[in-house]
Structure formats: C-alpha cells, structure tokens
Amino acid sequence: MAKAKKLSKGFIVFLAILFSAIGFAAGFFGYGVYGASKPEKGDVYYSGGLSIHFPELGNYKTGDCTLIKKGSTEILIDAGASTDNIDTIDEYIKKYCEDGILEYVVVTHAHEDHYAGFTTENSLFNRYKIGVIIEFAQITEGKADQKMYKNYVRERNEAV
Q: Which pTM does this prediction carry?
C-alpha cells in the first residue's frame, strides 16, 4: 500500500488560489460556450428553458428582487427595498407570468431591502395568486417590533 504524501499548507493555499483564478476566468470569458447567454443590461440570464431575471428597480434604494421562470412556473425571490418599487416589480413580472400565479415566493431574510414589496395593502401578495411562501426561519432581534415587519406578517397571513 502506498503511503499518502502530506501537502504543505502553503502549497494547498497556492492550489486554491490557482483553481479559483482559473474558475473565475473560465466563467467570465467563456460564459456563452455552454448554452447560457450573457445578460443584456445585466438583467436576464437564459439557459435552455430556464430564465433568471434581476429587474432594475429604478432608484438608489432598490434592494433585492429575482424572478426565476421555467415553463409556466415562476419563482419570485424577495421584493425590493421600498414600497415604491411594487409597481415596477409588478410590471416586470407581468411580462413573464401570464397566468397570474407565482408558484413560489421566497423571502430570504428579515431585512427590509428584501421584503418591502410584500408589506402594503397593495403588495405583490395581493396582485398575484401565491402558491407556496418560503420565508426566513427567524427574524433578527428587534425586527419583530418594527412596523414594516408587522405589515409583512399581516400581508403574508392574508395571502395564504
């Protein structure tokens, strides 16, 4: 049986940096080689029948919002940082969600820049039929008392 040769810590770090650099370069320069298209204006990635959208919400306080579409299934992940973004997000989703159903809504965590679009009586929860809501497991200490979080909970409960 051959004895395993132990690699030095420095050599392992060197390999990690080398492989990271190669992976980054391959991803950056060869993105379209494997059937995926480069986004135009940074907002949509396509691969086969899957599209991933990063809507431009149009102001400095945009927050996070991602729409994933595969066939007739739409997944909305987060809904921006401001209730001012609701109409913009809605207009964007309407282009891709023909049946008015968001099969999955994912709210990643309890920071307002991720769930503001779900917090008003005119929220995205009220504009679409919602299949499944997947949300953060717990809130950050102190968030439960904030008005926006309470509004989110109210709208979420009315949507299900």
A: 0.70
